[in-house]
């Protein structure tokens, strides 16, 4: 199939691609850093094309003890033997694309790991799991939650990468209700570290009239129980 360009996917091309990291939260041992335009244009385009080849699934998930159809589709890659329990689901990841296949996922995984090492030293191993969310348009969303499942290495860095439609994202402090909202641009990276998952919830609300799709790849360190 012919490779599609970012313009074909309806992604706005920003001329000035500055990559300076911006601190979004830095208090109570929580730290969240946003790195705008982390991916090059080529990487963004290749990853967008790669996402189109994945067969995403729409899962039934448990939200506040109710079974609902997830308002997005998902897929995961991870090391053999790992599993991830979340929202009442037991996720067994697909094998990473073979290291000889020149696959963009492998390159991106390395690049995200290198960047995370600049800011976080809780876990120096490569990310061993990625959960990918596909939001078909502005009706798809993820409600407020924390990535605090018992399968995740406590206080390890969670690196969230996005491509496609620009969307708003909000953190809420579970004690004070103070919020931090930001616009997440295609090709950018959000690093969540320290006690962020203990003190904050985060969510991606619906976005009225938005017709473009968006993908989010959340790289995590899962506990290897072997
Ligand atoms: O799509 C996003 O940016 C957020 C995804 C997320 O919060 C999650 O997978 O836990």
Q: How would the blueprint of this fold be written?
A:
Elements: E1 21-27, E2 30-35, H1 41-52, E3 60-63, E4 66-69, E5 73-78, E6 84-86, E7 89-91, E8 94-95, H2 104-119, E9 129-135, E10 142-145, E11 158-164, E12 167-173, E13 179-184, E14 188-194, H3 196-199, E15 200-204, E16 214-220
Parallel strand pairs: 5-8
Antiparallel strand pairs: 1-2, 2-14, 3-4, 5-9, 6-7, 9-16, 10-15, 11-14, 11-16, 12-13, 12-15
The structure holds 2-oxoglutaric acid.
2-oxoglutaric acid (AKG) binds at residues 131, 133, 142, 147, 160, 162, 169, 202, 204, 216, 218.
Explain this structure to me?
- The structure is a single chain.
- With 226 residues, the chain is mostly beta strands.
- The protein is built from 3 helices and 16 strands.
- The strands form 4 sheets. An 8-stranded mixed beta sheet has the order 1-2-14-11-16-9-5-8. Strands 10-15-12-13 form a 4-stranded antiparallel beta sheet.
- Strand 3 and strand 4 form a beta hairpin.
- It starts with 20 loop residues before the first strand and ends in a 6-residue tail after the last strand.
- 2-oxoglutaric acid (AKG) binds next to strand 9, strand 11, strand 15 and strand 16.
- 2-oxoglutaric acid (AKG) binds at residues 131, 133, 142, 147, 160, 162, 169, 202, 204, 216, 218.
């Amino acid at each position: 199939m012919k490779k599609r360009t970012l313009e074909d996917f309806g992604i706005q091309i920003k001329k000035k691609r500055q990559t300076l990291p911006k601190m979004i939260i830095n208090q109570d041992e929580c730290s969240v850093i946003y790195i705008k335009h982390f991916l090059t244009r080529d990487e963004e385009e290749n990853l967008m094309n790669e996402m189109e080849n994945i067969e995403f699934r729409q899962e039934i998930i448990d939200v506040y003890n109710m079974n609902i159809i997830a308002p997005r589709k998902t897929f995961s890659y991870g090391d053999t033997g790992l599993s991830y329990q979340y929202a009442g689901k037991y996720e067994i990841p697909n094998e990473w694309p073979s290291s000889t296949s020149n696959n963009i996922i492998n390159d991106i995984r390395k690049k995200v790991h290198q960047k995370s090492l600049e800011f976080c030293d809780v876990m120096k191993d490569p990310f061993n799991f990625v959960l990918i969310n596909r939001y078909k348009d502005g009706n798809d969303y993820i409600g407020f939650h924390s990535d605090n499942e018992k399968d995740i290495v406590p206080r390890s860095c969670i690196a969230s990468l996005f491509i496609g439609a620009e969307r708003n994202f909000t953190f809420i402090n579970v004690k004070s209700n103070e919020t931090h909202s930001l616009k997440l641009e295609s090709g950018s990276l959000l690093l969540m570290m320290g006690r962020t998952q203990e003190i904050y919830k985060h969510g991606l609300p619906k976005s009225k009239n938005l017709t473009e799709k968006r993908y989010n790849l959340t790289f995590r360190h899962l506990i290897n129980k072997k």
